[in-house]
# Entry
Amino acid sequence: MPGDPPRDYPQGLPRRGDGLSHFLGGSPLAVAFRLILLSILVGVVLAAIGFDPWNILASIRLLFQRLWDLGFDTVNWLWRYFLLGAVIVIPVWLISRTLNAPRGR
# Structure
């Protein structure tokens, strides 16, 4: 309403006029920094499984060929990596969901 005093926005939420920050999910510099770090991390993981950035299609084909050649050992290999990752990912996800859960009034 026109007569209402202006509302204070909670810390961390962009103001109405800052559309770029709202679209990006934060300040452009912070988002760029996070994307650079995430790109490096994903690049390390992809390099570890044998992807080549200069010939990505051939690397994907070679990955599937190796998985096919492994046969049923692939299932065991995937299960072990899933468990290894889940030991870290699931507790971190659960803690972050618990800490960010909405609180009742």
